[in-house]
Fold this sequence. Notes:
The structure holds two protein chains of two kinds. Chain A is of the alpha/beta class. Chain A has helices at 2-33, 48-64, 78-88, 105-111, 118-124, 133-138, 161-166, 178-191, 205-214, 221-224, 238-253, 264-274, 288-293, 330-343, 346-356, 369-377, 382-390, 405-420, 425-446, and strands spanning 38-44, 68-74, 97-101, 114-115, 140-141, 144-145, 148-153, 155-160, 197-201, 278-284, 299-302, 318-325. Chain A has two domains: 37-153 and 318-379, 3-Layer(aba) Sandwich (D-Maltodextrin-Binding Protein, domain 2), CATH 3.40.190.10; 155-314 and 404-446, Periplasmic binding protein-like II (D-Maltodextrin-Binding Protein, domain 2). Helices cover 51% and strands 14% of the residues of chain A. Chain B folds into two domains: 2-55, no CATH class; 91-319, MetI-like fold (Orthogonal Bundle). Helix content of chain B is 73%, strand content 2%. The chains are: A alpha/beta, B mainly alpha. The interface between A and B is large, with 43 and 37 residues. Chain A: Belongs to the bacterial solute-binding protein 1 family.
Amino acid sequence: MKKINSYNSRPLLFLFLICIVLLTTLTGCSSAKADSKIQITFWHEMTGPAQVQLEKFVNEFNKSQNKYTVVPQFEGNYNEAVQKILNTHGTSASPAVFQSMDISTSQIYNSGYTTPVQKFINADNYNVNKISAVARAFYSKNGQQLSMPFNTSQPVLYYNASLLKKYDITPPPVDPSYSDISRVAQQLYARSDKKVKGLSVEIYGWLFEQFLANSGESLANNDDGHSGTPTAVNFSGTTAMTTMKWIQENIKSGAFMNYGSGSNAPTNEMAGFLSGKLGMFLQSSADISQLTAGTEDKLGITYYPHPDGQKSNGVSIGGASLWISNDKSRKVQRGSWEFIKYLMRSQNQAAWQAATGYLALNKDSQKEAVLQKLYQKNPAARIPSQQLARTVPNNTNSGIFMQGLIQERTLTQTAMEQIYDGKNIKSSLQDAEKQMNSYVKSLNQANK
Amino acid sequence: MDTQITNKNPQMRYKQRKEEKPLMATGLSYNKSKALRDRLYALIFLGPSLLVLIVFVFFPMFRTLYLSFFLTNNLGKPTVFIGFANYISLLSSSAYLHSLQATFIYVIAVSCLTLTLGLLLAQTASQKVRGISFFRTIFSGTMGVSVSVAAIFWLFIFNPSVGMLDQLANLLHLPAINWLTQPGWAMTAVVISTVWMNLGFTFLIFFGAIQSVPSTLYEAAQIEGVSKIYQFFHITLPMISPTLFFVSIITLIESFKSFGLIDLMTAGGPDNATNLLVYRIYQDAFLSGNYGLASTESVILALIIAFFTFIQFKVLEKRVNY
C-alpha cells in the first residue's frame, strides 16, 4: 500500500515543481521587461488597415520621444469594449487612454471615470480650432471638450459610376434628394433588365439617426440631449415616416436590395457592390479605401440624401473618440494627452485618411502631399471632407447626448427590419418608440 | 473535552482500532474523534473544489438572482430595488414572448432533426459494406469544425449576391431566397447550420452504441426471418435507449444554449426572428449594459431548462432499458 503511494506521488511532485519553475521564470521575464519609461496602456477597437496604421503611429510616437511607451491593445468590437472599460476601471488592468465609440459618449461621461481633455487643452493653450468643429461638437458638453474625436467618418452615398455610364444614366447630383436617388435606382434596375439592384440602405441605426439629423429633426427631446437628459424619443416623426416610405416604395419596385442587419450586412453589401450587382448604397466614408482597392470600376460619391423640398441640415459624424482615464497618475494622464496630440498632428491625420478613409480632422491636413495625391487619383474622395467642412454644427447634427443609445439602435433596427419586410411603417416605428421610452424611463430612474 | 481524552490515551486508541470495538465505554469518545477526523479529511479533500464551486458557480448564481430584482445603472451596479417588475415587464413584453416562441421552435427543430439524422447516419454506417470506414470518418467530421469556421462556411452558401444557393437557384430559374434577411428563412438557415454542426457528435455516440449491441440478437432475429426494419425498432432502438436518452438531453440543453452560430450568422435578426433567449441575454447584458434585465432573463432560462430536463427524466427514463 505504501509503496504504491510513493510511486504515484513522485510524478505529481515532479509536475508541481515544473509548474513552480515555469511560473517563476514567466513572472521574472515580465518584470525584467519593464523599463524606466512611463507605460501608457491604450485600448482600441480598430481592425484591418486602420489597425495597421494605428500601430504604426504608436511605434512612431514611442520612437519620437523617450519619456513614454504606449502599449496598444485591441479590445474587440465597440459595443463590448464599452463594458470592458467600465468594468475594469480602478484596477491595474484598466487602460490609461482608450478609444470609445460615438454613441457611448454620454455613458462614458456619466461614469465619471475620465478626465476631460479640455483640462489639457487649457493647460497647453492647444489650438483646438484647427480640429473640425462638427467632430468636436459631438464629444463636448456645455462647451467643454470631453474627449478628442479620432477616427471620424461621415455617412455618404456611393455609386458605381462606370455602371451608370454603361447604362447611360445621369449620376445623382452632389447634394441629392430622395427622389434623385429613386430616379437613378429605378433606371438602373430597369435598364439592366433587372440584373442590377439600384439601391441598398443597410438596416443600421446610425443611418436612421443620420436621416433625422440631415433634415434637422431631433431624435430625443431636450434638443437631442444637449440641453438636458432626454426623457423621450422621436422615432415616428415626419422625417422618419417620409424616409421609410421612400425606402418601402423602392423595395416594392424591386430596385432595392435588403442586405439585412448585423456584422454580415455591410460585408455582403460591399460584395454586391464590388461584383456589380448593386448600383448605389449609403455607408460610412471609412469604406472608401476598401471600395477603391476592390474594383476597376470608377467610384462615385455624393452627400447624404435629404427629403425632397428642403435643404440638407448636414449629418453628424460617426466613429470614435479618445478618452483619458482618471484612475491613473498625473504623469500617465499627461503622457496620454501627449499621445493624443501626436495623433492629431496635421501630417498624421492626413496619413490616417489616406490609409483608412476616416477623415482628417486637422484642417491643415488638406494641404499635406499625401492627401493631395489621393484627391488627384480619385477626385470623389474629396466629397466626405467637403461634407464635413460645410456642415455648421447645431443641436440636431451633433450627435445625441443620451445613454442607452445601443438599445435605441437595436430598436430602430428592428423597426427597419419590419418595414423592409413590408409591415406598416407607422405602427413599426411607434412600437419601437414606445419600447425605447419605457427603457429610457427605467434608465433615468437607475442612474439618478 | 473529547480531544483531551483521546490525546491522553493514544495507546488506547490504537488498541481500539485493532480490536474494532468502537462502542465500548471509551469507544464513544473515540467515535466522536473519528467523526471529527473524517470531517477534517472531507474538508481537506472537498474544500478546494467547494471553493471553486462557490466562487464560480454558487456566487454568480445567487448574484444573478439578486440582480434580477434591481434596476442597474450605467456601471452595472444595482441601484433601485423593483421587486418582480423585471419579471413582469419581460413576461408582458411581446418581443420577449416572441423570443421565447422562436427559441422553442428552434430547440424542437434542432433536437428532432439532430437525433433523427444522427441515428439514420449511425445505422447506415453500421452496415458492413466495403469502404464504409471512409464514410464513418466523413460523418463524424463536423466534430472537428469550430463554430466560427462553420459560420463562415454557411455564410458563403447563404450569401445573397455571390452565395452558392443563390447561384444554384439562378441556374434552375427558381426565385432567389434572401436566406438571412427574411424572418422565416433566417430561422431555417440557422437550424440547418446548427444541425450540421451537431451531427458529428451525435453520430459518433450513436454509432458507438449500435456497435455495442450483441450480434447474437441480430443472428437470432435473422434465423426467425425478421425484417431489417423490425430489427431496428425492436432490437437496436431498445438496446441503445440509454444512449438515446443521454443524447436527447444533451442536445436539448445545448440547443437552448446556442449562441455562436446565431451571433455570427444573423445577430438575432431579422425582426428578432432568431433572437433566442441566450442571445437576448448577451445583448441586454454586454451590449446594452442592462444587467438587471439580463439577470432576470437568465433566471427564466435556467427555470425553463430545469423544467425540460425534469420532464425528460420523468417521462423518457421510463422507456429506457439499462
